[in-house]
Amino acid sequence: MLVAGKACLILALAVCLYGIGASLYGARTRRREWVASGRRAVYALAGTAAVAFVALEAAFLRSDFSFALVTSHSSTTTPAFYRATAVWSSQEGSLLLWLLLLSLWSSLILFVTRRRLREIAPYATAVLLGLGAFFAAMLVFLESPFDRTVGPLPAEGAGLNPLLRHPSMMIHPPMLYSGYTLFAVPFAFAVGALVARRLNADWIRSTRPFTLGAWFFLGAGIVLGARWSYSELGWGGYWAWDPVENASLMPWLTGTAFLHSVMIQEKRGMLKTWNVSLVLATGVLAVLGTFLVRSGILDSIHAFGASTLGVPFLVLIVAMISGSIWLVSSRAAELRSDHRLDSLLSREAVFLLNNLVLVLLCVAIWWGTFFPLIAEAVTGRRASIGPPWFDRFTVPLTLVLVLLSGIGPLIAWRRATAANLRRNFSRPLAAALAALAIALVAGAGSQPDALIMFVLAGFVLGAVGQELVRGTRARRVMAREPVPLALVSLVRRNRRRYGGYLVHAGMAVLFVGIAASSSFADERDVELVPGQAARVGGYEIEYVRPTADLVAASNGRLERIDFGAEVRVTGDGRSRTLVTERSFFPSAGPMLGPVSRFFEGEATSEVGLDAGLRRDVWVSVAPDTRRLEPRVEEGDEVFAAAEDDLAPAERDALLAEALRGLVRSYADDPPPATFRLLVSPMVTWIWVGALIVFLGGLIALWPSPRAVSRRVTAAYAARVGREARAPV
Amino acid sequence: MAMDPARKRTVRLVAALSAAVVLAAALVYTSFSASSEARSPSQLLSQAEPGKTYQLTGRVVAGYERNGTVTNFRVRDRTGEVSVPVRYEGVLPDPFRAGREVIVDVRKKGGVFVGEKDSLVTKCPSKFTAET
Questions:
Q1: Are A278 and A264 in contact (CB under 8 A)?
Q2: 3-class SS letters over A140-194
Q3: Integer Cα distance of A553 and A133 in angstroms
Q4: Residue A48 to residue A13: CA distance in whole angstroms
């Protein structure tokens, strides 16, 4: 299997190199058979990458420790579900996943456009295969996932990092990588359009579902990451301006900007330079995102990677940037706008402003993310900046953005008149005032940023609601449909528009959740013994009793020790019990004793959460294991002395007995435990808002029946045309 | 009176460029003034302005003392014996032990360095993955 996998990767690299040559040769000489051959090289790349990925996945599932990668990232005690996901917890596995996803998306777009964009597609194929070749070369020469384990076959592997044992980690990385690789598609077609000098909106229209898909997947990945942080990391937050979070946010921001500004190009033929620049920047940022996660150049809890990838990635990024700049500047004449901006009071101007704000956000986040490197280059000393610095820039910019997301759908194209403004803005403004009143009554007046956000969210929801009501009403009158049917057919017939509006509404809801939970949370760290209680945010939280457990995996091997607490939360006129735990996973360090390794490895938090629309009560515990230290040391010594006399099975049984005794002693005589207690309002709104956003995204993504029929008609017309011209 | 389009474009370009310059200056200025420099205990001992945040890196000295949620410990140079006192309030990360390498954002207050909330991080000696 190792050899077969390796052969697949070498084949993948060869296929990429061949396909680049075939596409470029076909484009130069206008020989279609070579272009088609280049396209088939992409399909072949998808095939070889898939075989390699399946081989690796199979090795993880059956715990084949002859694979060095399986030994270092999985174990028989890792549950099967997480063995499957452990593939992409490794550097090599995630690069392979990147290559696989890239080749799948590339195959899809090239298949869909096989009879269109004939001048552009060969160059786009070459760009996509160029990216594929880069990743294939890394997998072949630098980070092979198919290396053999050195020395004798180990009986057990190191296991999956326990922090990654969470359901959302199953889908978070593939989502992010889908987003990154999908952004490669519009990037490649933009390059193709620039090279071929075909700069109308055709390539934008053909790649739009991919751009939207990239935006969708990247966004979903970001939210899943936030959710994971909230429920697994034990600090109570969902966003920390960590370099890897920022890395995924930056292309998402420029991608969002692009999705808006292309509408101006389609409608008015303006902003062509801006659009290609945005999409090229997004492509570069997507690769940069992968680079940040995988190179470990910035300290981050996520940056698991080694640094061997730094130089090749830098070369790739520099090549992408300089190529982009050269292409855009040498095509300046073809990128000239067909129209000029008529008025600053127009939808175009609002879109332009929204683009500026999104790009500014991206620039500020970029600066903050790379600040440690910048500071070291300038002052020679490493320095870092924390979340408050990011907030200083992102909070005001986000407020402006939310405001614009309400104005955009209301204002007229070209030039808004006073009548247009009066007609469209009065009701949303009333909604904003209502939101202000509600927020003030609820006591939000003390936090101006949050208060402004609530008002703006009211405005956006009012605007979206008004547009939906108006459209439905018009449809009901025109088509004589009952209200629910009228609403459905309204949305169905204008998927992009109303999907987009729903996204705006969802973002408003999401930001209400962020504003409320970041401004009005009550948090306390307290030390409690069983029976003792603490008050936080109007709730009384009592440490009822300790929990302690030695957990064995399904194959009987010891997996972890859980120390936790049962707490009772009283407030709101009711009382409920929550359980929070800290799980201690054994370290694989060779110098550690058999008992102490359980307390020197990674630990994860299982948060006790009582979620609600109004507020979340969130509890995590940090058990104090110091009282166990003498017994742990004693256990290590006993086992070290008896090491040679015991058979492995005997030794395992005794170890389990010793650990069980340790666990029991914690439960019987619990030391004081430190709790983090958090009462945070409206966190749930973040997840609900995100769901609304993704629903809107899905609606916008879904191909409209008219587009399908248009495509069929166009194909039919083309055939008729061909046949009419054919000699009879 | 309407401006001629060429002039209007120049005005817009100048306005956009100056806005960009202002933003860039704001980014540079605020980031450098808000940043916390990485320091070792001996560097911190020889020079530390009160009120400014530093990122302290070093090893935990044996014999730290915990009082409720407040922990008082000393951090010494990675190689060497010079150490500084640190007071940290809040939950300790799990592998917090004597001899373990830690990073913590601190501010000088009187004779001690007070840790910022949630800033204490331990560097694990044995990474879970084999590659370290």
A1: no
A2: HHHCCCCCECCCCCCCCCCCCCHHHCCHHHHHHHHHHHHHHHHHHHHHHHHHHHH
A3: 40
A4: 10
Tell me which residue has tokens 């299997």.
A1
CA of A528: which chain B residue's CA is closest? B68
Give me the DSSP letters along A244-288.
Answer: HHHHHHHHHHHHHHHHHHHHHHHHHS--HHHHHHHHHHHHHHHHH
Q: In this complex, do B69 and A587 lie within 8 Å of one another by their Cβ atoms?
A: no
This complex has an ipTM of: 0.85
- Indicate the residue type of A637: E
Which residues in chain A touch residue B3, judged by CB atoms under 8 angstroms apart?
Answer: none
Look over chain A and give the mean of its residue pLDDT values, rounded to a whole number.
90
| Gap between the Cα atoms of A378 and A53, Å rounded | 43
Both structure tokens of B8: 């209007």
Domain ranges within chain A, ordered by starting residue: 1-162, 166-384, 407-520+686-697, 522-685
pLDDT, tens digit, 9 for 90 and up, residues A619-662: 999 888 888 888 888 888 888 888 777 887 888 888 888 899 99
**Beta strands A558-571 and A539-552: pairing type?**
antiparallel
Query: Cα-Cα-Cα-Cα dihedral of A363, A364, A368, A373, to 10°?
Result: 30
Whole-angstrom distance, CA of residue A55 vs CA of residue A11: 15
B90 and chain A: CB distance < 8 Å anywhere?
A: yes
What's the CATH number for B37-123? 2.40.50.140
CB A624 within 8 A of CB A671: yes
The DSSP code for A586 is P
Handedness of CA A592, A594, A596, A597 (dihedral sign): positive
* Closest Cα in chain B, distance from residue A581 (Å): 13
User: Do A375 and B35 lie within an 8 Å CB cutoff?
Assistant: yes
Per-residue pLDDT of chain B (132 residues; tens, 9 = 90+): 456 777 877 888 898 889 889 989 999 999 998 888 888 899 888 888 888 889 898 899 988 888 888 999 999 998 888 999 999 998 887 677 788 888 889 999 888 999 988 888 876 543 333 332
Q: What is the pLDDT of residue A277?
A: 94
| Residue carrying the six token digits 């500014």 | A360
Cα distance between residue A677 and residue A91, in whole Å: 36
- Max CA separation in chain A (angstroms): 97
Catalogue the E-assigned strands of A236-386.
383-384
- Do the bridges between strand B101-109 and strand A608-610 make them parallel or antiparallel, or are there none, so unpaired? unpaired
